[in-house]
Specification:
The structure is a homodimer of 346-residue chains. Chain A has 346 residues and is α/β, with parallel strands linked by helices. The first copy, chain A, folds into two domains: 3-243, 3-Layer(aba) Sandwich (Aspartate Aminotransferase, domain 2); 250-343, Aspartate Aminotransferase, domain 1. Helix content of chain A is 40%, strand content 15%. The first copy, chain A, contains ten helices and eleven strands. Chain A has a seven-stranded mixed β-sheet with strand order 1-7-6-5-4-2-3, with helices on both faces. Chain A has a four-stranded antiparallel β-sheet with strand order 8-9-11-10. In chain A, β6 and β7 (208-212) form a beta hairpin. In chain A, α5 (105-128) packs parallel to α6 (152-164) and α8 runs parallel beside α10. Chain A is globular and about 70 Å long. The termini of chain A are far apart. Chains A and B meet through α1, α2 and α4 of A and α1, α2 and α4 of B.
């Protein structure tokens, strides 16, 4: 992609990415960039056609931020959304893969096909409702929602559906971007020439923002704008982080330690089948399910008391989010501690 | 106010302030803080009652930011809002005062009374529509919208209307906070004991955020949340800025130079009645209207060529936004240059 727009945080990045998609979509509908008098007068009072009834299609379990636009595409936990007014935008099911993947190839392929069908149905339904889908937003791995993965095939097909229906395709890499999956961007694992129209980032990138194609550049100044538009001091820090990633080959390191971590989780899962299931991951971006929420919380606390900070995600998953300097010997240190903790929960 | 919530920018500050008002309002409606099962399930799919049809009342000409929630309360320029979906929220007229104020006391009092009546009508109307007003948001001076002022009486009455109807009262000081009006917060000019329930800030404060009353504290963690929740490094810078403001008595300085600036603008307005009108301001937060947009742009360019950076606001205003270290002798330097520029436009 040829363009980047910096912003201060992940929510602002996604809010502005959505705005870029809406502006792009409306200009495409018009066939030109000149708003009508009616557009200009109605938008001042929040009404169509100036403020059009467009929508963004998101996925159940997604997390894209907590400001009002983002929140309309976030569906991970009720506490994030409760009591905040929202938009009538379509929500598709995200594949729920069965593990181990190699045992459930057929079921998982069917599950993904079903979700893709739903996406197309929703696009058609919302167009008929008069609220066309301007863009589809998706995480390469649903992080906050429980570390939910889908296959590269799923994302390739979804990207094609977006193209077929004239929707922009927005890949939200706020959680997955920056190297922890073993590639700098998680969408690189899909092996596509044209994986997205817009890619947002934040967190590990130390600043927020989004990359986008030329055609998603707003046609006039002040349409995408903000007091600070990001923070140059964070960009300086980021430049040095990128240098270290290159110099120390951290992406290879992550791939190596991620493999050791996931293999270790597989082994523990075999050892503690009553507690652990669905070990999964890409690079060190790993997770595992715990039998129930109470056991999960007890494990999290006991691991913390032994000096290991783990986090929960979804209903009963534990997610592993080590820094990029997490090496193979750290993996073994961790697995020993984790084994001790699990042993106390048998 | 006893509490402050930092955020990264003005838009995020207002988005989260709105969320705090919605959460507060819904808990007030419930009579307790425990959401129903229906609340929890419907909010996940963007529907009522979990995502309730609540609204924020804003004013025509207002600017509160550019993310989707904020944008639904922004009504300053079409280019900010065009093509972005919005909410059906009530928009009240902001007083359009006639200048000089002392000649139009009666008209201006009537104008403000009329706007206040409209506010009450809208609150009732939106309640009947099933979209109750959870909060009223207003700038002490509408900045982006054209430096529109209202009297302390207006704000006092508005605050009472908010209280009477059970709406939170949110004063957006993103533009006016930080000292340029001669007080640290512009709402201090209203002389009230209880001027607001929530006050947002950004820009001059170097970081974003909002102050709020205890009762507007969200009742659970993660309801108001963000990856970074502001930036401690900016708070360090701000602490030093506040030290300088105190040490150098910059608020007194601003009051003094603001008076000189406004008197100078009055004099120029008398000298160039065909070009200038409606000189107005508080501290150095001043503005003046120009006969037409083309002349305004020509004046802005010519002033720039003489080393003075001025900005436009509203349809045909010029706004003055000097730094807090702008002293009386700077005012005279400026007025001489401005006089030269105006002389070229006679």
């Amino acid at each position: 992609m040829t363009r980047v727009q910096t912003m201060a945080c992940g929510s602002c990045s996604n809010e502005n990415a959505y705005k870029a998609m809406f502006i792009w979509y409306r200009n495409k509908e018009r066939g030109h960039n000149t708003p009508s008098g009616d557009d200009l007068s109605t938008c001042m009072i929040n009404q169509a056609p100036g403020c059009p009834e467009l929508s963004i299609l998101s996925f159940m379990g997604a997390f894209h931020g907590r400001t009002l636009g983002c929140l309309a595409t976030t569906h991970s936990k009720a506490i994030h959304k409760l009591d905040v007014p929202s938009f009538d935008w379509p929500i598709a099911p995200f594949p729920r893969l069965q593990y181990p993947l190699e045992e459930f190839t057929k079921e998982n392929t069917q599950e993904e096909a079903h979700c893709l069908e739903e996406v197309e149905d929703l696009i058609v339904k919302w167009r008929q409702k008069g609220k066309p889908v301007a863009g589809i937003v998706i995480e390469p791995i649903q992080a906050e929602g429980g570390d939910n993965h889908a296959s590269p095939d799923f994302f390739r097909s979804l990207r094609n559906i977006a193209r077929k229906h004239g929707c922009a395709f927005h890949v939200d890499e706020v959680q997955t971007g920056g190297g922890s999956t073993g590639k700098f961007w998680a969408h690189e694992h899909w092996g596509m020439d044209d994986p997205a129209d817009i890619v947002s980032f934040s967190k590990k990138l130390l600043t927020g923002g989004y990359f986008h194609k030329d055609e998603l550049q707003a046609d006039q100044p002040y349409r995408i704008f903000n007091t600070w538009m990001g923070d140059p001091s964070k960009n300086l820090l980021l430049a040095e982080v990128l240098n270290v990633i290159r110099r120390e080959n951290l992406l290879e390191e992550v791939t190596r330690s991620g493999k050791a971590l996931l293999n270790g989780l597989y082994a523990l899962q075999a050892q503690y089948p009553g507690i652990l299931s669905r070990a999964r991951g890409q690079g060190t971006f790993c997770a595992i399910d715990i039998c129930d929420d109470a056991t999960r919380n007890s494990i999290l606390l006991k691991a913390r008391d032994k000096g290991v900070l783990l986090g929960g995600c979804g209903d009963r998953s534990i997610r592993f989010r080590p820094a990029l300097v997490f090496k193979e010997y750290h993996v073994h240190l961790f697995l020993n501690i984790f084994n001790d903790v699990l042993n106390q929960h048998k």
